[in-house]
């Protein structure tokens, strides 16, 4: 079978633990691109961050960001798909998170909003340190989320709830599912100490499906590679769903194939096996 589109998660998948793309992976992806395969970065990160790594691997394909809430051309301002969060739902979500002692982080395509620099916002700040000034992600420390929500009512794509209280996270996640005002929001985790919240119907799987249809590519011609809960929907959609060797066991169990880890060129090895050598 000739695969025409490969969608790859970033953290824990395309990137090694130093947040780098290995030389072997770059070379393998270039060979796949030269064959006409569309290489799609599909990440929970915001578009502005994902675009940097899409540039590193040289792909021209659109980028899927914010867990599928935003699809945009890499080298232009043309948005292919966007689904923003309902402002009333965001307000309720912020209220519920604070009740459990969590400080949520809100995201647009290019900006991170947080009450303090910690957890996910701290990660973005650290990533900024290695980037040229023009590529750095905007981080705004705010005192009033109501004002942020109002000013960005047609721009908020995702919220992240993150913290050390894992039991509290589980309880909050259950309460969201049981609360009418927000029960229909999409929720997925990218790490064990967080969960990410998007508007109803948003997922990486739906985004990959949308993009495949956009290019008139069938699911049988799609490979999706990931490592965590928010990758499950795209792994299940793909004709060939691949879990990383470092993936959670429940991700490996639903995958068609398990490749090597992100530290050992798992993405490159999978593409070599199923795209370059078949």
Structure description:
- By secondary structure, this protein is an alpha/beta fold.
- A hairpin with a 3-residue loop joins strand 6 (105-107) and strand 7 (111-114).
- It is built from ten helices and 14 strands.
- The strands form three sheets. It has a six-stranded mixed beta sheet with strand order 8-7-6-9-11-10, with helices on both faces. It has a five-stranded parallel beta sheet with strand order 2-1-12-13-14.
- The radius of gyration is 18 Å and the shape is globular.
- It folds into two domains: 5-82 and 203-276, Rossmann fold (3-Layer(aba) Sandwich), CATH 3.40.50.1000; 87-198, Hypothetical Protein, Haloacid Dehalogenase-like Hydrolase, Chain: A, domain 2.
Key terms for this structure?
278 residues, alpha/beta, Rossmann fold, 2 domains, five-stranded parallel β-sheet
SSE series: EHEHEEEHEEHEHEHEEHEHEHEH
Structural class: alpha/beta
Query: What's the number of helices?
Result: 10
Sheet-strand content, in percent, reads 15-25%
Distance between the termini: 8 Å
The gist of it:
It is built from 10 helices and 14 strands. With 278 residues, the protein is of the alpha/beta class.
Map the helices and strands.
Elements lengths: L4 E4 L14 H12 L3 E4 L5 H11 L5 E3 L4 E3 L6 E4 L4 H13 L5 E3 L3 E4 L5 H9 L9 E4 L3 H7 L6 E5 L3 H13 L7 E3 L5 E5 L5 H11 L7 E5 L5 H6 L2 E4 L5 H6 L2 E2 L7 H11 L2
Parallel strand pairs: 1-2, 1-12, 7-8, 12-13, 13-14
Antiparallel strand pairs: 3-4, 4-5, 6-7, 6-9, 9-11, 10-11
């Amino acid at each position: 079978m000739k695969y025409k589109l490969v969608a790859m998660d970033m953290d824990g998948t395309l990137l090694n633990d130093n947040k780098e793309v290995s030389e072997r992976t770059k070379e393998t992806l270039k060979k796949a691109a030269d064959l006409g395969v569309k290489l799609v970065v599909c990440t929970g990160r915001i578009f502005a961050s994902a675009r940097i790594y899409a540039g590193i691997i040289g792909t021209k394909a659109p980028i899927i960001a914010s867990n599928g809430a935003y699809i945009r051309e890499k080298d232009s301002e043309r948005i292919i798909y966007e689904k923003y969060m309902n402002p009333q739902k965001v307000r309720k979500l912020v209220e519920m998170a604070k009740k459990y002692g969590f400080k949520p982080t809100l995201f647009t395509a290019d900006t991170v909003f947080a009450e303090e620099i910690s957890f996910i916002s701290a990660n973005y700040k650290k990533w900024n340190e290695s980037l040229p000034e023009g590529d750095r992600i905007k981080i705004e420390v705010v005192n009033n989320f109501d004002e942020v929500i109002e000013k960005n009512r047609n721009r908020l794509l995702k919220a992240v709830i993150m913290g050390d209280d894992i039991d509290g996270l589980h309880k909050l996640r259950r309460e969201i599912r049981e609360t009418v005002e927000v029960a229909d929001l999409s929720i997925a985790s990218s790490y064990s100490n967080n969960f990410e919240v998007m508007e109803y119907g948003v997922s990486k799987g739906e985004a990959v499906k949308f993009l495949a249809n956009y290019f008139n590519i069938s699911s049988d011609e799609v490979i999706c590679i990931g490592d965590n809960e928010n990758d499950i929907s795209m792994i299940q959609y793909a004709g060939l769903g691949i879990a990383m060797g470092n993936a959670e066991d429940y991700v490996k169990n639903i995958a068609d194939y398990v490749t090597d880890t992100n530290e050992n060129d798992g993405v490159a090895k999978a593409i070599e096996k199923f795209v370059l050598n078949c």
